[in-house]
Specification:
One of its GO terms (biological process) is DNA-templated transcription initiation. The protein is mainly alpha-helical. Helix content is about 45%, strand content about 10%. Strands 1-5-4 form a three-stranded antiparallel beta sheet, with helices on both faces. The protein has a three-stranded antiparallel beta sheet with strand order 6-8-7, with helices on both faces. Strands 9-11-10 form a three-stranded antiparallel beta sheet.
Amino acid sequence: MSIPEPIAAQQAERPGILPGDDSGEAPIFDVWTDLDAVAVWARANGRDGLKPFLLPVTDEMPDRVRQAAERLNAYTMGGLFSHDPMPDDDVDWRPESDAGERMEPMSLAQSVEHAVNLLDEREFEVLARRVMLEQPETVEEVAERCSISREKVRRIEKSVRLRLQAVLETYRVEEKLEALFDGRVPFMTTVQACVRMPELGERLEGLSTPLHRLIRNVCGTPFEVRDGWVASPTLMFARQAFLETLRGEADGHGVVSPKTLDGYDILTDSGVPTGTVARWLAYCGVVVVRGHAIVCAQLRDVIEAILFVEGRPMTSAEIAALLSDDDTAAVETDLRADPRLVGVGGGRWTLRG
């Protein structure tokens, strides 16, 4: 992945900020303390509908809260928001240039890009290579590329991550991620995920990268987006964990009934199963016959389960057609070696007894 040019080469002047030294460390004010001070005041004064970074600075704020709001606005958002007083509810506060519409709050992607806009070139380089790549470079690789020490890279990365985490926190991204995966299954389609958490579908246009990549690499809730699926913590882990769950639900033949599968499915708003589990099983290469999932680990057991579900004699070619690898020769070998099965003529096999 080529690294795009920084959105802004030099860090903008930010009034009201106590800057750190040139070691790459964050400014010495505590972002979390400021966020807490502003959020507590907003809730106590009926302003909890606004996010801390979107809260205009007003004269009614105590000095400590006003200073915290100014630092947050100036530092993370580049002083983007107006310091005009909060309008009264009965006053038309819409701008003259667009009196027909209220000003829309910034999206998460826009807020992140404004935060990135404040990084200097070295900070941006570390962000791009340690956070924004699909496979981030190692600290050693970045240190060599930037001609700085590994400790310097770590300090810069920590500083940048703290700033981005502060932005994500105002949009409650961590809470939304936890809620996204609080169901019975740790996976869903990307369409379903974006409906439930639209931020996952946003893009950082200035960085030419999906926003979910930054969210994944900055937040504490791990997840993976690939092949039209979103899973936590990874697709491979979600596959293995769900198969183990289903094996606990299977009968003596390693078969899970359609009714049981429906109990794990993601439902529509009207309570109708979406078929997500069936699509997930197909994606994972699990054999599904007549709506029954076969979760056996060994090919021989899968063959026996297929014959059990079908309830009729079958040829090796018919059985192989239901398998992902369609290996008729391997099926034929296991059919002949399994004492639970018996040939009934015409190359067909069934369960013994």
